[in-house]
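Review the following:
>
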Amino acid sequence: MTIPYICILIAALLPYVWVTIAKAAGDKYDNRDPRGWLARQGSSRSHRANAAQLNGFETFPAFAAAVLMAQFAGVDHARITWLAIGFVVFRVLHGMFYVGNKPQFRSLSWFLGLFCVLTLMGMAIARVS
């Protein structure tokens, strides 16, 4: 069960990758007013990287809960592992597509990540029913 836990850790840290890119991609970063600085970046790569960060924080709780639900319900460990890895891969792609301004691919990777979460939850619910 180690790999799904590592996936939870990676998913928890991914938003910090995107915010680092956001700070490095824009005009000279101002740590005295980070939100004001970000607002002045417009629709730049920096702005998109920040949006990827926020989306990462939004999706993390459901993913962590889904992995734990599946584990506690006794879902097959191999299935949990593959879905957890899939989620992380799709979230990395999501951030890359967000920063790279590829909205169709970004949306596809977002939906595929959501599919992993819903599948984990669905399997847990089915197992305890």
Residues 45-73 form the longest helix (29 residues). DSSP finds five helices and no strands in the chain. The chain has a mean pLDDT of 94.
